[in-house]
Design goal:
15 strands, 2 domains, OB fold (Dihydrolipoamide Acetyltransferase, E2P), 300 residues, 9% helix, mainly beta
Length: 300
């Protein structure tokens, strides 16, 4: 259920905000895990009467990547689509990247999903990365569970200038301004993409770019996960998932530390560790990751 903002919720939200962003460096010193999701102001108290608004849904924008070329490792001559103006309304925040794992500003992305009623089925391609957003009002602070509108530019990001993603793969993302709409009264339900404990075919919905792309930006859950030896480089910490043989490096989904300090604050993970389930946001950067938000996203 979506609820309008009340005076009580506004006061509660002020208490949750706590210390202004500008004061954080004085408190945390050299720590890299700082919030970057706006200022200290409350959102407007009168929401739109329509809980979803009149704009596009994420699933209206994000589709199959017809430009993906499985035999084009170097991504030469890719037919990337152009950017377009986007007016998205009625998306719920599933995660905010407040953790700077590389200590070079690698934080600030917001992950959203199209809002669903409790009895609606999850729609593939309904998740999105909001890259470095501005806010209206400028001092707005947002939290997981807030329902937002985003106005800006939608792009299929092909990778950094230092080198494109392999096989003409892209990351769909939108950059622009986010506006508060509602605060949800219930948590977002992760969608279980990988179920049970059968053979390796159960991983098919997440194997390969064309399959895994449909879950990008969405909060998903994998059941019965066995991991391999953790990998660490430049502050990035990732734990490969055993999905069976015959997969390229790009296609092996890894549990990553993009959203919290997985190495120090997560469960102990080593080659052969088995998890009942893991929940997280599906991300992409030269390969797919599942990014838990805290240790609470692990079922041991």
């Amino acid at each position: 259920m979506l609820v309008a903002r009340s005076v009580r919720l506004q006061r509660s939200r002020r208490l949750r905000r706590g210390t202004p962003l500008a004061a954080l460096p004085l408190i945390f010193g050299l720590a890299c895990n700082v919030t970057s999701d706006g200022g200290v102001g409350d959102p407007p108290s009168e929401p739109d009467a329509d809980p979803l608004g009149s704009g596009l849904r994420v699933s209206d924008l994000v589709k199959d990547a017809t430009w993906f070329e499985a035999d084009n490792l170097e991504s030469t001559g890719c037919a990337y689509p152009g950017s377009r103006t986007a007016n998205l309304t009625g998306q719920v925040i599933v995660a905010i990247d407040r953790y700077d794992e590389t200590c070079d500003g690698a934080r600030g992305n917001i992950y959203v999903e199209d809002v669903l009623d409790p009895d609606e089925d999850v729609v593939p391609f309904s998740g999105m990365t909001v890259f470095g957003p501005a806010f209206t009002p400028p001092d707005l602070r947002v939290f997981e569970g807030d329902v937002m509108d985003t106005f800006g530019t939608f792009v299929e990001f092909p990778g950094p200038s230092s080198g494109p993603f392999n096989y003409c793969a892209t990351l769909p993302e939108v950059g622009g301004t986010m506006v508060f709409r509602f605060e949800r009264s219930e948590p977002v339900r992760p969608f279980t993409v990988v179920r049970g404990d059968g053979d390796n075919s159960r991983w098919d919905p997440i194997k390969g770019y064309p399959n895994a792309r449909q879950w990008l930006g969405m909060l998903v859950r994998f059941e019965n996960v066995v991991v391999a030896t953790p990998e660490e480089s430049g502050g990035r910490y990732a734990v490969p998932i055993n999905m069976g043989g015959g997969l390229s490096g790009d296609d092996v989904v890894k549990i990553s530390n993009e959203l919290f300090d997985l190495k120090n604050d997560g469960p102990e993970l080593s080659d052969g560790t088995q998890l009942k389930a893991v929940t997280g946001v599906i991300t992409y950067f030269y390969g797919f990751k599942i990014a838990p938000r805290s240790i609470d996203d692990f079922e041991l």
